[in-house]
Specification:
By secondary structure, the protein is an all-beta fold. It has no helices and 15 strands. A hairpin with a 2-residue loop joins strand 1 and strand 2.
């Protein structure tokens, strides 16, 4: 996709090109007019503070016929399973690497399962990476179309304990660029939600997530018009 990049917002080791054009239920794209507002859901270069993973059994166990707060019955095999990272792709030859870990291993009435994705610049020079949300899996939906990953601490339309979205999430169409210094990392905490059309609350089974991204070397690589190199990376989680 051809994208116009005009505005760079810098904060620490990050830079963002934001071309705002309204909202859509899909992912990121290109627009005509830049925005000067600082995004609130971009990854951080500092280690986030998270709660320790819980080993308590979530409400309703695995949802085997337990009544939910709305008065219905959660389908068998859904509702509050624990999550593990089942598989990760091999790294590419590009100068950045990915890692994913579980930070909250089970859904409770207070929060859904949670992951942390880390993107590291493995090279000895600054790189720019886009699109800045997709590369850290924010707003990425599983290939099964059953789960979606949303920036943590957001206010999303979902029933507590079930964590299935009751409606789609509108995402602004813009192209953001992350600037990462040599040897530095950015991280993104991601809450795991069921999609509105999913089977039950948080469907058990294996679910794969994959994202594509572009990397260019130099502080003004992508922003300066360098087409960069294309890459992709993914992982699978298991809910059980």
């Amino acid at each position: 996709m051809s994208l116009t990049r005009r505005t760079i917002l810098r904060s620490g080791g990050l830079a963002t090109v934001a071309l705002l054009a309204g909202c859509t239920s899909g992912g990121s794209g290109s627009t005509d007019e830049p925005t000067s507002e600082e995004p609130t859901d971009e990854p951080t270069s500092e280690s986030p503070t998270t709660e320790a993973p819980t080993t308590d059994s979530p409400p309703g166990g695995n949802g085997t016929g337990t009544d939910d707060p709305s008065g219905g019955t959660r389908p068998a095999g859904t509702g509050g399973p624990g999550i593990i990272v089942a598989q990760t792709d091999d790294e590419t030859d590009l100068p950045v690497s990915h890692a994913v870990e579980v930070t909250k291993e089970a859904a409770t009435e207070e929060y859904p399962p949670q992951l942390r994705v880390t993107l590291t610049n493995e090279s000895d020079e600054t790189v720019q990476v886009g699109e800045g949300r997709a590369v850290v899996f924010a707003y990425v939906t599983s290939e099964s179309d059953q789960l979606t990953l949303l920036p943590a601490d957001g206010d999303y339309p979902a029933e507590a304990g079930c964590w299935r979205l009751t409606e789609g999430i509108a995402v602004t169409e813009e192209y953001r660029i992350l600037t990462i210094e040599a040897g530095e990392s950015v991280t993104q905490l991601l809450d795991v939600y069921g999609t509105p059309n999913g089977d039950g609350c948080l469907p058990v089974g294996e679910h794969r997530f994959e994202t594509s991204y572009t990397v260019a070397r130099g502080e003004d690589g992508l922003a300066g018009g360098d087409g960069g190199e294309e890459g992709s990376w993914g992982f699978s989680v298991l809910l059980e």
